[in-house]
Amino acid sequence: PFAVPRAMSSFVDRLVFPAPQATYQRDCEPWKKHLVWIPWNEAVSPDRVNDERYAEGIPCMWLPSPKAAGVILFCHGNAEDLGMCLPFLKHMQQQFKMNVFAAEYPGYGLLGHLPPSEAGVKEVALTAFRFILDELKVAYEQVMLFGRSVGSGPSVYLASRFPIGGLILVAAFTSVRDAARGLVGESVAHFLDERFPNISLIGNVSCPTLFIHGEKDLLIPPSHSVALFKQCRARKLLITPPGMEHNTNLFTDAQFLAIPAINFFGLPGYQQDEPPQMPQRFFEDGRREFELRRSAREQRRAAHAVGSDSPWFFFCGCPTNRVKRESLGMDHTMPHQEPATFDSEVTTAAPEWDPAAAADDPPGGGVCSGDDASAAKETKAGKLGAQFGGRRRCRTLPPEETPGWDDVAKK
User: Fold this and answer.
1) Would you tell me the crossing angle of helices 82-96 and 258-265 to the nearest 10 degrees?
2) Are residues 172 and 224 in contact, defined by beta-carbon separation less than 8 angstroms?
3) Which residues pair with 271 in a beta bridge?
4) Reported pTM
5) What is the residue-level pLDDT of the chain in tens, covering all 411 positions?
6) Which 3-state string (H, E, C) describes the chain?
């Protein structure tokens, strides 16, 4: 019964994400010096981290800018990959004087072996965002998100969840279903599962937001950006260039993007002497790092197995396997011990002095000896010990350890 919905969902994903043939390679210029590989995040993708099929990581483009503290995370459109985006990324880095970071989608470019989907795009975008924060040590307010066309989906998704510094949306849609309604009609769009519901999330965005949508866009009408603009509650600006189409190069006219963005966000923004630096290990794919992590896990697993075989793990209270304890002959039931009890007649009041009892007691301040009085003396000492918190103890000493007692008794 689930085969038809899965097939329909896969078919719609292929329509929403019409990935072109990969336009870049890992060892070819001009992409090689900008290509970095970030690992899958264990918190975001727990099923991929230790899977050898995903050992290489996520291909990304990194374009640093001298002294720039901020980073623009770019999410590209659905009919392009990172290779096609590189000229645009270079223009953005030069115009805005900011570091630029872009992540590839599943099904695109060097991630073409993975199926494209809304969940996969969000997963990659969130992993790239966490990488900027955790590895590049960039503060939330120094991160700006830039989403174009379908890239508006992951951009709004992240901006609605995190306190970033700014959001740029170009040719955005209210939702994929709404965009499909204008292309294929209401009857077909009604059966599509919703994807990237930007209109539902834009109200949660708190950062300054710039909307850019060409009036000649026939693929996604500018009414989508108008609706998003009205729903947005943050500081905002809407630009609708008259001669701009859906796929127009935004840097052919400075009025399309450069001037509005620079004026609205006050770019280039904060500068610092030590800008974010990309660690050198990320310029190679993650297979070597994956093997090192796997080797470390195996070593820890082997050390744990050896340690759990030691009897000291059992005696120190560490958890051990019952089968291993039985093989070591240690799985024996401890003998049952009755809990200690105190005589109910013992009270906290000081004991009264009994002359008759004192006459029977030997001198020596509570040190007892003699077989005939041992039991009585120990019982009395036990009561006194219980009364005073067990600080004094009485034991029976043999005659040879009690010098002077025999002499006193003979006298």
Assistant:
1) 50
2) yes
3) 68
4) 0.72
5) 334 455 666 777 777 888 999 999 988 888 999 999 999 999 999 999 888 889 999 999 999 999 999 999 999 999 999 999 999 999 999 999 999 999 999 999 999 999 999 999 999 999 999 999 999 999 999 999 999 999 999 999 999 999 999 999 999 999 988 887 877 667 666 667 788 999 999 999 999 999 999 999 999 999 999 999 999 999 999 999 999 999 999 999 999 999 999 999 999 888 888 899 999 999 998 888 888 887 887 888 888 776 555 555 555 555 555 544 454 455 544 555 555 544 444 444 445 555 455 445 544 444 444 454 444 445 554 444 444 444 444 455 555 555 554 444 444
6) CCHHHHHHHHHHHHHHCCCCCCCCCCCCCCCCCCEEEECCCCCCCHHHHCCHHHCCCEEEEEECCCCECCEEEEECCCCCCHHHHHHHHHHHHHHHCCEEEEECCCCCHHHCCCCCCHHHHHHHHHHHHHHHHHCCCCCHHHEEEEEEHHHHHHHHHHHCCCCCCEEEEECCCCCHHHHHHHHHCHHHHCCCCCCCCHHHHHHHCCCCEEEECCCCCCCCCCHHHHHHHHHCCCCEEEECCCCCCCCCCCCCCCCCCHHHHHHHHCCCCCECCCCCCCCHHHHCCCHHHHHHHHHHHHHHHHHHHHHHCCHHHHHCCCCCCHHHHHHCCCCCCCCCCCCCCCCCCCCCCCCCCCHHHHHHCCCCCCCECCCCCHHHHHHHHHHHHHHCCCCCCCCECCHHHCCCHHHHHHC
